Amino acid sequence: MSTQVHAALDEGTVREISESLGEPEWLLETRLEALDALDDLAMPSVIRTPGREWTNLHDLDFEGFVDPLNAAENKDQVGPDEAEVLPFAEAVDEHEELLKEHFGSVVDPQDNYLTALSTALFSTGTVVYVPEGVDAEDVKIRTEMNSQSLFNYTLVVTEKSASVTILERQSTGEDVDGERYYSGIVEVAAGENSNVQYGTLQNVDEETYNYTLKRGHADTYATIDWIEGNIGSRLTKSSVETYLKGDSSESQIVGAFFGHGDQHFDVNARVWHEAEHTTADLVTRGALDDEARSVYEGVQDVGSDAWDTNSYQRENTLMLSDESEADASPKLIINNHDTEASHSATVGQVSDEDLFYMETRGTDPESAENMLVEGFFVPVLEEVAVDELRDDLTDLVAARLRE
Predict the structure, then answer these.
(1) Band of residue 385 on the pLDDT scale cut at 50, 70, 90
(2) Is 80 exceeded by the pLDDT of residue 126?
(3) Tens of pLDDT along 175-228?
(4) How big is the CA angle at 237 (ends 232 and 242), to the nearest 5 degrees?
């Protein structure tokens, strides 16, 4: 199988997508440059050890299930009157200068093969713009994929002293058979003293390959908090990243995943401390049943100018079967001695002692294990500041345990 999906496309396909969205020439040129760059770009980085590549992206049959001209979806995009929550095509008409300034400024369209593919082919998206001083709650973006492939793009821009809470959901409809591909690129530009909370719940069906890259730039005193829940998909390659570019900027990345069957999750949490007095907290928990597999990479990169840095990372995976597999690779890269940082990662099973204790109190073995798994996720769920997302994640974990 080949990753050279662009061999089945041409410039005309990209032009047709761009024309349907009414895009200006500069954006079309960005798409075409991304298309032309595919031959020279590598797949997103994955963890490798001698003789083993932990996630194989090269054998995905993109040509078999990427069909950009037949994209179909149901999408809801809602938010308060004080903020602008616009479909991408409307944002092109109403905020071209905003797009010209920020599109591709956080995620380089040619960052890797899959970002370039997404840039060339995206046909749907959302732009969230929060003016100075505005507090925007309850922005909701729901995408139901009803085609073999869907390329989605989201841009969030907050001006000085603005704040926004965004809840994004991804799912698949039931009218397409066979393998599917979902791609989502998210760029967040958080202005001075602004606050962005971005929560995502991915629950696409288990015939769908899922690639998402979420990246934010935090200005002086800005905060970007990410919440990443992964339940669905056949294979997920997900990266959540923050660049702390301004003094006293902060970021929290909270992640949760629950795999079963032969699902594969490759999840990454990364933060770059580039300015003084910055703070980051990365916390992820996952559970695996049956033959499911997870790969986790966490990176805390402290730059030479990042004086007075505080950076913490914790990842824990719970194994519910002997056939499941989990690997973790937490990393600290410290180039400034004025740093307080730590990282940890654990892999383990449900405690036999805990199970025995609960069974002696009259709980049947299955219920006892389910209660312990639900309790395992509590420390992560308590970090989720968005009540609706926390409740949804709790319900999905309970539902999976009943399957």
Answers:
(1) confident
(2) yes
(3) 778 899 999 999 999 999 999 999 999 999 999 999 999 999 999 999 999 999
(4) 110
Distance CA 268, CA 282 (A): 10
Compute the distance between CA of residue 186 and CA of residue 107 in angstroms, rounded to an integer.
8
Query: Residue range 304-330: average pLDDT?
Result: 96
* pLDDT higher than threshold 80 for residue 61: no
**In three state form, how does the secondary structure of the chain look?**
CCCCHHHHCCHHHHHHHHHHCCCCHHHHHHHHHHHHHHHHCCCCCCCEECCEECCCCCCCCHHHHCCHHHCCEEEEEECCCCCEEEEHHHHHHHCHHHHHHHCCCCCCCCCCHHHHHHHHHCCEEEEEEECCCCEEEEEEEEEEECCCEEEEEEEEEECCCCEEEEEEEEEECCCCCCCEEEEEEEEEEECCCCEEEEEEEECCCCCEEEEEEEEEEECCCCEEEEEEEECCCCEEEEEEEEEECCCCCEEEEEEEEEECCCCEEEEEEEEEECCCCCEEEEEEEEEECCCCEEEEEEEEEECCCCCCEEEEEEEEEEECCCCCEEEEEEEEEECCCCEEEEEEEEEEECCHHHHHHHHHCCCCHHHHHHHHHHHHHHHHHCCCCCHHHHHHHHHHHHHHHHC
For the chain, give the mean pLDDT: 93
Residue 392 counted as domain residue:
no
Look at residue 3 in the predicted model and tell me its pLDDT: 46
Cα dihedral sign, 60-148-267-203: negative
Dist. CA 28–CA 14, nearest whole Å: 8
Question: And the tokens for 111?
Answer: 């960052």
Residue 363 domain flag: no
Q: How confident is the model at residue 7 (pLDDT cuts 50, 70, 90)?
A: low
Residues 6+ apart with CB under 8 A from 366: none
pLDDT > 80? residue 62: no
- Mean pLDDT to the nearest integer, 345-361: 86
Total domains in the fold of the chain: 1
Containing structural domain, residue 296? 5-350
Q: Is 207 part of any domain?
A: yes
Is 371 within a domain? no
Band the pLDDT of 8: cuts 50, 70, 90.
Answer: low
